[in-house]
Write a structure and sequence with these properties.
The protein is α/β, with parallel strands linked by helices. It is 38% helix and 24% strand. The protein binds adenosine-5'-diphosphate and magnesium ion.
């Protein structure tokens, strides 16, 4: 379980997180929504100690990671997989070597075991047999899936997704949505995703949390969020749907 308590973070004196309190339960997928530039990615980076807050706590399995130095963070980080925006693959490496990278970097596994784990990860994301390809040979959707394979290859307990469907057409976005659900159900990963794609949020979230002005403004199941009487929530979820080419207007109550 991850418990975030009174988390505050500023950059150059301007506050981004103004006191975030939130819990992420084991096995669930939480989606964080909110305005662009509102601090969603910043919040995600605090969960695994990539950023340090001014005040507050982040409890990961009952250990407050905020005071930990890099050396003591290392075993905590191994509990996490990340899918950052843009997938960030190494262009010069094959897909296989990209996915193998975190295993080779952190652990002393034999190459046969590395190969087995990489093949399993590629299979989970539907890229069996594509290991020899270079990132440049992959479509945007395949690159995201490759990034996902790299995120899960270390069998993390927690998976952090930053805008997993952004920039993908609706069909490819939906493939990623299904994969995220599959990872939750098959690997029992606890997921935290940041997105402004409401169709994706409704599909993958057990709970949705809306970050607004540096705090968690609303939390609920997708159905609760859609039915929320809160004008800010309605304005946000409708506003996002209206400007999205991918979701026909009026479609926000589906999925
Ligand atoms: N490393 C950083 N240094 C300075 N400012 C940052 C840094 N990371 C994020 N910010 C600022 O924090 C705010 C929130 O950013 P971000 O979390 O990326 O928003 P989003 O909700 O779109 O993911 C933005 O104003 C951004 O410019
Ligand atoms: Mg962001």
């Amino acid at each position: 379980m991850i418990r975030i308590e009174s988390l505050q973070k500023s950059f150059q004196g301007s506050p981004v997180l103004r006191g975030v309190d939130f819990e992420i339960h084991d096995g669930e997928t939480v989606v964080i929504i909110g305005q662009s530039g509102g601090g969603k990615s910043v919040l995600l980076k605090h969960l695994c100690g990539l950023l340090k807050p001014e005040t507050g706590h982040v409890w990961v399995d009952d250990e407050d990671i905020v005071p930990l130095n890099e050396r003591r963070l290392a075993p905590i980080r191994r509990k996490f997989g990340f899918l950052f925006q843009g997938a960030a693959l190494f262009d010069s490496l094959t897909l296989f070597d990209n996915v193998a990278f975190p295993l080779r970097e952190k652990r002393s596994l034999r190459e046969t075991e590395v190969a087995q784990r990489v093949e399993e990860a590629l299979e989970i994301v539907g890229l069996t047999g594509a290991g020899h390809k270079k990132p440049a040979e992959l479509s945007g959707g395949m690159r995201k899936r490759a990034g996902l394979a790299r995120a899960v290859v270390g069998t993390p307990k927690y998976l952090l997704y930053d805008e997993p469907t952004t920039g993908l057409d609706p069909i490819r976005a939906d493939t990623i949505n299904h994969l995220i659900l599959r990872l939750r159900d098959r690997l029992r990963v606890t997921g935290v995703a940041v997105t402004h794609d409401m169709a994706s949020a409704y599909k993958i979230a057990d709970r949705i949390a809306m970050l607004h002005e540096g705090r968690i403004h609303a939390v609920g199941t997708p159905a609760e969020i859609q039915a929320s009487p809160d004008p800010l929530v309605q304005q946000f979820i409708r506003g996002v749907a209206d400007i999205s080419q991918e979701v026909p207007s009026g479609n926000t109550t589906l999925h």
